[in-house]
Design brief:
Layout (H helix, E strand, L loop, with lengths): L10 E6 L3 E6 L12 E6 L1 H11 L4 E7 L3 H12 L7 E3 L8 E6 L5 E6 L15 H4 L2 E7 L8 H14 L3 E5 L10 H14 L2 E5 H7 L8 H8 L6 E5 L5 E5 L4 E4 L12 H14 L4 H15 L12 H10 L6
Parallel strand pairs: 1-4, 1-8, 2-6, 4-5, 8-9, 9-10, 10-11
Antiparallel strand pairs: 2-3, 6-7, 11-12, 12-13
Helix pairs in contact: 1-8, 8-9, 9-10
The structure holds adenosine-5'-diphosphate (ADP) and ligand LHLMWEOZ.
The site of ligand LHLMWEOZ has 14 residues, from strand 2, helix 1 and helix 8.
Length: 330
């Protein structure tokens, strides 16, 4: 099965949600308490996905709210210079700050993120700042789950989803679940299921689908797809870390993508690089099995590097890794 996009659209992908700062530990293999220096990168899951898409040659745009400060200006400039259309960034004029993510790399298996996200500008995106004319110029609207965690950003997302549906723009929902952004699991499940049920494609880890279904123990992929296929989704991707990922189609096909062997430096960034290359492949007309390979190869490259955004690979790097065919059998 292949996904059909509106090929007359100027943008391949418009992402909506947060564009923030990652501060990644320079001295790794040690706890944060002992880390003295950090490198600055653009971060935030949807921004990373837009950057990854742009590096792969897609025409990407972004809708979001930036702080009126040095970090906000750094983010806008970085994204613009990488080729992303930044005209639909709104600058906050109420003193809200840029979200920061400090990353700790204790070992390749033990990484964590310390987020500073109190009163961050991105969650103040207002529905009135979501432009219908802009959304209808794209093949895809990429919605990040964290942007649903608070109003007014939550309503801005719901408006964007409804405009996308009205104008035949495919809605891709990246669950991007960050527990600390939410009041409680019931709230998450309400908004996650609301948007997932309206999306064309849903991408997330098994844990994230458990949050969507408000489960306390691990659910079964079969139950998840049976539920979501009663609604709009035509393609559901469920990721299982190093064990790889599965894609399910509404017509009943199941595909497995295996992870590629690599020298892992840190595990974060995998999901965003996976999403950008998976979507690149689908937009380029490749079949789902091939798209899983692109996503997995891209993730494998990014986990071997220091950042999530700057490290996003080129098509050539991804294809070279797929060609080597050194997958992980778990
Ligand atoms: N240690 C690893 N080595 C190689 N590839 C990996 C590794 N961990 C994850 N990946 C790849 O990244 C994809 C996404 O990772 P996962 O951890 O499931 O998502 P997320 O980063 O969103 O939590 C996986 O499906 C796999 O292809
Ligand atoms: O999404 C964020 O706000 C932080 C990211 O920029 C960070 O690089 C990260 O956590 C990415 O992880 P992923 O979700 O595993 O791709």
């Amino acid at each position: 099965m292949k996904l059909n996009f509106n090929h007359d659209r100027e943008f391949d992908i418009i992402a909506i949600g947060r564009a923030c700062i990652d501060l990644n530990a320079v001295e790794y293999n040690r706890p944060m308490e002992e880390t003295m220096t950090f490198s600055k990168y653009v971060g935030g899951s949807p921004a990373n996905i837009a950057i990854g898409s742009s590096k792969l040659g897609l025409k990407a745009g972004f809708i979001g709210k930036l702080a009126d400060d040095q970090h906000g200006r750094f983010i806008e400039k970085y994204m613009r210079e990488i080729g992303i259309d930044t005209t639909n960034f709104v600058v906050d004029n109420e003193g809200h700050k840029t979200g920061l993510a400090f990353t700790e790399i204790k070992s390749p298996e033990e990484c964590s993120i310390l987020m500073y996200r109190q009163d961050v500008a991105d969650l103040y995106l207002d529905p009135s700042e979501v432009n219908e004319e802009y959304i209808k110029r794209s093949k895809i609207l990429l919605v990040s789950g964290t942007a649903l965690s608070k109003s007014p950003s939550r309503e801005a997302m719901l408006k964007a989803v409804s405009l996308a549906k009205e104008h035949d723009v495919k809605v891709i929902f990246e669950l991007d679940y960050r527990p600390y952004s939410w009041q409680n699991p019931e709230e998450t499940a309400v908004y996650y299921s609301l948007v997932a049920e309206q999306s064309d494609v849903v991408i997330g880890t098994r844990d994230e689908y458990d949050a969507l279904e408000n489960r306390t123990s691990e659910g079964k992929n079969e139950d998840t797809v049976n539920y979501l296929f009663k609604h709009s989704p035509e393609l559901i991707v469920i990721k299982h870390g190093v064990e790889g990922s599965y894609a399910y189609t509404k017509s009943g096909e199941i595909f497995r993508g295996k992870a590629y062997k690599t020298k892992v430096l840190k595990t974060f960034g995998a999901g965003d690089s996976y999403a950008s290359a998976f979507l690149y492949a689908l937009i380029s007309g490749k079949d789902i099995e091939t798209a899983l390979k692109y996503g997995s190869a891209s993730a494998s490259i990014v986990v071997s590097k220091h950042s999530s955004s700057e490290a996003m690979p080129t098509v050539e790097e991804i294809e070279a890794l797929i060609e080597k065919n050194e997958t992980i059998s778990v």
